[in-house]
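Suppose you are handed a protein chain with no further information: no name, no annotation, nothing but its sequence. What can you learn? This example shows the usual starting point.
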Amino acid sequence: LARLIIGQICIHACMAGMRMAAPLLALRQGYSAAAVGVLLALFALTQVFLALPAGRYADRHGLKRPVRYAVAAASVGAGLALAWPVFAVLCVAALATGGATGVATIALQRHVGRAAHDATQLRQVFSWLAIGPAVSNFLGPFSAGLLIDHAGAPWGMPAGSDTGFRAAFALMAALPLATWFWVRTAQELPPVIAASGPRPRAWDLVDDPRFRRLLIVNWLLSSCWDVHTFVVPLLGHERGLSASVIGTILGAFAIAAAFIRVLIPLVAEHLREAVVVTGAMVVAALLFGVYPLMPTALLLGTCSVLLGFALGSVQPMVMSMLHQITPAHRHGE
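A reasonable first move is to predict its three-dimensional structure. Written in structure tokens, the prediction is:
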């Protein structure tokens, strides 16, 4: 499990760092907030179309084959941004790194969920696995911000120079390769044999009201996470904050999310998924109401930490419920 968590951190940090660096470069090049919003949306667009095929592929082939393809796509995408740091190529990099991270995450979550034996263990293993994206949401933006601000200094270049952005993209291109180093020795689980007959349609899952409600709640709370990622660079740029400070605010959110996910396995027996998710929705709504009113980096960071506590608790609960209400041979799907 530790090796899989580290592997997930590496490929997810690639996307998280790109998701912070690419909008800042676009803003520096004079693109509007609307253009930056489109750029950030592209990190999720390929996941919309790849999610179901990637899930079915993982159900058929297990863990390592989809992760291998994801590593290649993420490295190539970030490498393109390194070679040609222009808006159109940043859009391609967003599509590649976002889709690759989604594919790898599906394969890893399916593998870990299948290894659990009951509901309590599901909450525990998904909480441990969910630490990966939380840590990577700190490491990716924070390391990218440091490189953007300081990588050009040895050559006398100011913070935010092209050299800084290229250095950040180079690191993001290298991180997915470390994912394969950690995942390549994982032992595949025995395949699940589905019942004979025609393959069921994906929409059959949506016919289950429990699945449908869970999907809607997950959409809403996932969008909260992405809205935060979008708003912080815009607020920081508007208020003249440096890339390092913006990366630190995003990193504080990630640390808080990781901290709450470390606590969940310790108290998993006493938690009820629906109660945790409902509380997270209420807290997130309140924090989004006051977030844009915060005038300083410290207050923005405080809101970021509180939001990280709330939203960080959601994914383990959602994944636990998901594995309890879907058939074993369709967990990836």
